[in-house]
Amino acid sequence: MSKSTTTLKKIAETAGVSITTVHRVLNGKEGCGEELKERILTIAKEQGYEVNYMAASLRKKPLHIALVFPKSDEYGRFFVQKILNGYFKFREEAESYHILFQEYYYPAEDTAQSSFYSILNNIYQEKPFHYDGIIIYNQYLPVDAPFLALMNRMIGKKIPVVIMEKCPDASLYSCLVGPDENLAGKLAAELMSKYVHRSGTIALIGPQIPYPDMNVEAFSRELERRRKDLVCQIHSLPLLGRQRESLGNLLAGIPDLAGVYCTCARHTLAYLENAREQDFHTDCVIGSELFEESCDALQSGILDAVIDKKPFRIGFEALRLLFNHLVKNEPLPLHYDIYPKVILQTNSLLYLNSEEK
Cα–Cα distance between 145 and 294 in angstroms, integer? Predict the structure, then answer.
């Protein structure tokens, strides 16, 4: 009798069920109640049972995973491309398993979402439907009825849908993988309160999105709690296109500007482009995401700090979680936070050279 069969038998005897029932639970098959399933999984873990997931996947029909992602644009390399790089890094690690990956790309500048909707509809209407999991990234993730209805139909087919980066309500999907925006905002506010040594206005530059921005909200609350003498002035700018002129005019129009916090990479770059030509006389400037230009700005003192939300980890963890769910039967968390890190001048070069490790 093989070691695997003996282990299954021991698990079955301990749980008081048949070997067939144990096999069904350990291989993610339906037909067992949640309470019994959890008991069997707990016993299996306690007895040190290890499933050979690679061998099991090769015996089954291939799994199909779809990625819906924007095509890279002029500024995509600062954040979006890093998410995609993380996805491809884990895809490399999963290539030995019986999985078929399909990537669908829509134009990043398609604000009407027509191409995005078309891809999702085509995926859903494929006959026969063969996808086992879907990963989606959209920086302007829609919240309208047609999109939500389509997501409900996907999930109704018991197809897990993993959303990357931001969304208005994580409970609408199977899993949301993104940065802890609340922590990012609080970290930036703490730094700002310590760097700024006078009263004045803090310009908070956030993206235009169709739902509340937790980064912006957390920053403004934390700054108010720490520094009553600082006024937080919130400005929302589009994510697409060049923001250099509009951001420059905005900041030049604030006479008592004491600090600037840009919550995304594109607006950080727009600030850096303006800073080459004019001095805004601020005590503190905090940007977002570590890339070559922001690292150089930290080294030269144009930026005082960067809140890096680890976009590479977002893509990597999104596929890893879906893989573990489909192959190892691990439950998908409703929300998986990627914790941001603070980058200063002294550690910027270290992190720039090792950010994807």
Answer: 39
